[in-house]
Fold each of these.
Amino acid sequence: MPIIGNIIKGFIEVRDKLADDKNHVEEQREVLMRLLKTAKKTAFGKHYKFDEILESEQLPKTFADAIPYYDYNKIDKEWWQKLHDGEENVTWPGVPDYFALSSGTTGTTSKRIPVTDEMISSIRNAGIQQVYALSNFDLPPDFFEKGILMLGSSTDLEEVEGHKEGEISGISASNIPTWFRGYYKPGQDISAMEDWDEKVQKIAEEAPNWDIGGLSGIPSWMELMLQKVIEYNGVANIHEIWPNLQVYTSGGVAFGPYEKSFNALLGKPITIIDTYLASEGFIAFQSRPDTDAMGLVTDGGIYFEFVPFDPEYIEQDGSLSEDAPSLTLSEVEMDQDYILIISTVSGAWRYLIGDTIAFTDIERAEIKITGRTKFFLNTVGSQLSVNKLNDAVQHLEEEFSIKIPEYTLCAKRIDGEFYHCWYMGTEDKAEDAKLADGLDEYLKSANKNYKVARTKALKGVKVTTVDPEVFSDWNGRNKKKGGQVKMERVMGEEKFKEWEAFVEEGV
């Protein structure tokens, strides 16, 4: 009988019931107040007169009116660069102990995002909240005695000018609580490995020695790891190695496009739980089984604002126009795409994180990620966000009984005419022309803007199928394998030329 598991599960259930009655709007107001009070004597706080903002009876509005929007390039150039020049108290008291390196999905040059002790604490607390929420998923007591394999970037962080640098998954894993280390796999030695292929090989070798109950990591890299473990150990599916595997905590990107190929690696169904951990902080997690939406962490170290996702507010470089209106949590509406803006305990202020979201339940502050501001395909008025592209790919998987775990596309000029040119990663046999027709018909029926565009400037759709490994090889060449690296879903024409040349090289 799993005695320890019963004790842990009972404790979690009690703690989760105590946390049921949350006032997310009030929590956000308190977070904003705390952020402003803490940072009022920093250079940023003095420049924007946080003292005066704090005296306002309309705190959120005064805050929004006083401070402009910042994307990474702007805040780094005007403020964070001073940290690298040795200055203290720039946008947050003191100096950060860590910088999260993130090239995200938009480029090869790493961003260096400050990560303070307060942010580490905030991420840890959000993770604990997520553990408490597991009581909602009706997991058996013995689950709470199994290991959890967290697949991320290296925990061997680089020492640079008095601070440490690495991807946020590596920074988080290097700061896991002492009590959790007995559950944590692959362990500190393997987690510190820098070389992705070497790390996965070691995991495959050690896998039979572990009793894994849960997995955590980005779907694309998790799939590759599971495939390696299955292949190396000569089994049919991962449950032959880890029979007690019951939960996968996905993160970084929408799980939908990977669902079919991921499930093919399993011997039985497991619980999938979505999370939203970015380099800038732990933003949201799924807290109940009857939805795949995620609840914003409204009582942590992040204050949220929401800008209606209207193309007229977005500049060519993906930044926001100064007149773009922002809303608080108390003002948002259902089923409206919003650009997510955050202010954090790491000294990011009114920061454009680059994601778009929509609310599925305002009272619970539950959201879905709907895309990226830079990956909004609107070159010829088709207005396709990433979630709509994902839906289309899942439709093709069902219609043609195939798996398409990866894809990318571009609105490309061919002989003066615009086409949506797709590359789809699949190991299954399918005719490109039939996929293109099926895709086109689905998008016309599901999206009125796309249908209108197809009668005007958008000439048609082209599909090219390639091996899914082409996508991981592309990421490996341009960035690094594993960790937070994600595939670009929508490319500009110049980047797409590089992509097509890369595909040709491998043919």
Note: Confidence is low (pLDDT under 50) at residues 1-12.
Amino acid sequence: MWDVADFEAAAYTTVAQLSAYVAASGRGHEPVVRTRPPAELAAAMDLRRWLREGGMDQDTYRGFLATYLAEGTRLHHPAYLGHQCAAPDFPAALADFVHGAVNNPMAIYEMGASAATVEFEVLRWMLEKAGFGPGGGGVLTHGGSLANLTALLAARAAVTPAAWEDGVPGDLALLVPPSAHYSVTRAAAILGLGRRSIFPLEVDALGRIDPDRLPAALDRVLRAGRRPMALVASACSTGTGLYDELRPIGEFCADHGLWFHVDGAHGASALLSEEHRHLLDGLETADSMIWDGHKMLGVSSVAAAVLVRREGDLDRAFQQEASYLFYGDRGFDSIGRTVECTKGELGLKIFLNLAWRGERGLGEHVAARYATAHRLWRLASERPGFSCPYEPQSNIVCFRYGSADLDQAALRRRLMDDGTFYLTSAEVGGTRHLRATVMNPATTDQTLEALLDAVTKAAN
């Protein structure tokens, strides 16, 4: 089935085309995004014929791959300022290539001892950076949504250990700011808590938790006859890139016996930057946190860490038996800590980026993206017609152009339709804003000036 000569030839073609694709994307000469309708794209790639007849060879694969790449979104493009996905560095891409060939699903140690060991050491490094110490534990998952779910499973096991056997009691509650990532509310539903278990925390005008109003929030939960299962903070918020003040929140949780979970999916990488690590002051007081490698560590999607301060808490999150998997000494298996049974070699992606760039290099990458975002804020603040609701703390900038009744979502659509810039959008204080996320080292001051010019032109 595996023809080595065919593989080598196709791999050569793949590397050559990907190299050209990344280089062209970095120069910014191609549209950053294309969104042709699926029917047109399916026809352009001749998908139905290939699905039914097969027969692709080296020449037809070359043509298919060229079309496939041309019709996608170019994350290496300087004008990519969209969602929080990295413009992946090549060491992580090599890891994906290796995993695609060897396919070692290492949640069971004997299925991939080298991959599992790499993950163990990556997690040990992350725990140290988070300040969780030698007693902590962790696991890598396929994405931050699964990571948040896993952390909250650990919180549920700590508060109500019998839930796995007896079902979820109806009196549990989660204290969550409205600005939290949607995956937290989704996790509450998956866990059987229901949306009514969510008690919104009081926040400031920019969506950050107000520590002084935490006693009143806890009192509301208790007066409703509920038991608090966890309090969730953001480091940083997905919408605005602003950090909750972790230390006073953590101290409040410790004083009242509350599980403290920090969603650091995007912003925990600031731990590597001397200039920005203060934004996570107090992280060590958390009981659990998540940290995505596929955001600010330059890793391809997806690789997210669940970290807990006490290793046993994660081991109690799942209480599963399956005779074909769990028998004898489970040794170094991590399957007992994850939703996934078959799990990719996620640690290799983070490890190779670290091994190539170093901890300091990745920290400089984070600091440089934060600095570019800060320059965008300054440029927009100084331009007529633009307004910014806050000074950014990370690489996420929200801004508006024009009058209060100008449709910012329509403005974004115009920029995307011609492929010049890829932005997202978010509400801040109930008002719709354009949202730029600086992920790419190729994004320069020239890019930022061109963005503001393009927004002005599209509005007028």
Note: The two ends are 58 Å apart (CA to CA).
